[in-house]
Amino acid sequence: MKQRIREKLYIYYSAVLVLHIINVFLEIPWLQYIVGVLAIPMLGISFIWASKLFRILGGSFIGIGLIMYISAGLPAAELPLYLTSNLLMLAFLSVLPFINSVVKAGGYDEQIKGLMEGNVSNLGNLYMKSQITTYILMTFLNLSAINLTQQLLMENMRKMNTAVRNAFINKTTIRAFALALVWSPMEIIVALAIEGTGVSYLTYLPWLLLISFLALGVDLLFGWKNFRSIPYLESNPEVPPLPMGGVIREIMKLMFALVLFLAVILIVNHYMGLNFILTVTLVIPVFSSIWALLIRKWKTFRRDGLAAWKHQTSHMQNFIILFISLSLFSGALSQTDLVGVIQGPFLAMENYPAVVLLLILITYFILAMIGIHPVGTIAILLEVLNPLFDVFNPLAIGLVLIVAAMATAAAGTYGITVTMTSINTYQNPYKITLANLAFTFVFGAIGIMVALFLV
């Protein structure tokens, strides 16, 4: 019975999110208040099914937020109004399965993963092929690509030493996740940085691509050098690799779709004057549906896409707790003097931009090590760093906010990518953290160096 109720939660959650989106256009105060009131049961329900980490994290944000709210002398009746500022992020997350579903319906994922199969003699070459494959798939499939590539590597590397196999998977798939999503409009950190700094996605894009490709090139080089001496013992040598011509065609189709998707987002964002998160949220279902029609996979997409959307929306408890509790925390923080205390170290270094940018990276890393999600960290940092937008180029700060978050995601012990890899490979998450520590700081350093040119 309990599970049956959970599977139907998408009805309630969607109703609240749709009301909120409607009110973004209408801007009716009493409707915003109703949405805030309806967000309270969402929060309560989510505590039943959320993971222990997010219950602790959300409970902490709520507890501290309420203390700040009361100390600021804010009226209790207005509390619901402080719960709605991040609801668009939940709507954004709920529609992501549509883009994943059309990629799977078209069979692009199965074609492209053929890049990893066969025709390599050592793990150095496999490292390059695996990371490039995961990078491409990650652009559209997000976390689904990690599962896909890790399962394939686990199968193909069955004959390899377990320690070598795990070290290989720890580096290729997790790093590709961070590198690919650092510029993706479907990455929540990117969306938050755009909204928080007021810099357009089109301005961010070339710099994020530069950072991504530089870091990818460095990691491919070192990965190839570290693993090239190990021969690849293929589990299924009799299985012929997919024709490379077909794989390249599928990659080109995906790249064309990606460019078109980005163009639609930028055009809608510019001409309709919507905020970036709302633009992506509205574009994804429409773009995915048209794509499915064009490749003649509408029935498959409709079936699988709706099922994936219902499941995703009904199982968003962790993010519901995180974003609603962050709304209260951030709103209350902005009404107190505490924000000035936290700003102190950053403002004291306003004449040393390199130190400020390094502090951002260190803050992400330290908070990630104690279980704070990067979304929580960026919400706090955007409040704290706001005065510095008049001192430094906000683009430079935004770049480091994005890069540092994604770099930390590769090593955060309690992060979803590390946790997922730990489950898939049956290993201690701290081993995965140690394997990616150097990458985290190299990636972060590349982001800081590029940002310093823009300060």
Summary, kept brief:
With 455 residues, the protein is an all-alpha fold.
Query: Which parts are unreliable, with pLDDT below 50 for 5 consecutive residues or more?
Result: none
Listing every helix as H and every strand as E from the N terminus to the C terminus, the arrangement reads HHHHHHHHHHHHHHHHHHHHH
* Structural class determined from secondary elements: mainly alpha
Name the overall outline: globular
Distance between the termini: 56 Å
Rg from alpha-carbon coordinates: 22 Å
Helical content stands at over 70%
Mean pLDDT: 88
Beta-strand proportion: under 5%
Total strands: 0
Please tally the helical runs, counting DSSP H or I stretches of 4 or more residues: 21
Biggest beta sheet attributes: none
Walkthrough of the structure:
The chain crosses the membrane at residues 9-26, 32-50, 57-77, 132-153, 174-194, 206-224, 251-268, 274-295, 316-334, 354-382, 394-414, 434-454. Keywords: Membrane, Transmembrane, Transmembrane helix. The protein has 455 residues and is mainly alpha-helical. It contains 21 helices and no strands. 46% of the residues are buried.
Question: Key terms for this structure?
Answer:
21 helices, 77% helix, mainly alpha, 0% strand, globular, transmembrane helix, 455 residues
List the helices and strands and how they pair.
Elements: H1 2-7, H2 9-26, H3 29-49, H4 52-71, H5 87-105, H6 108-112, H7 123-141, H8 143-156, H9 162-181, H10 188-197, H11 201-227, H12 244-272, H13 276-294, H14 298-314, H15 317-333, H16 338-348, H17 353-369, H18 374-385, H19 394-409, H20 416-425, H21 429-452
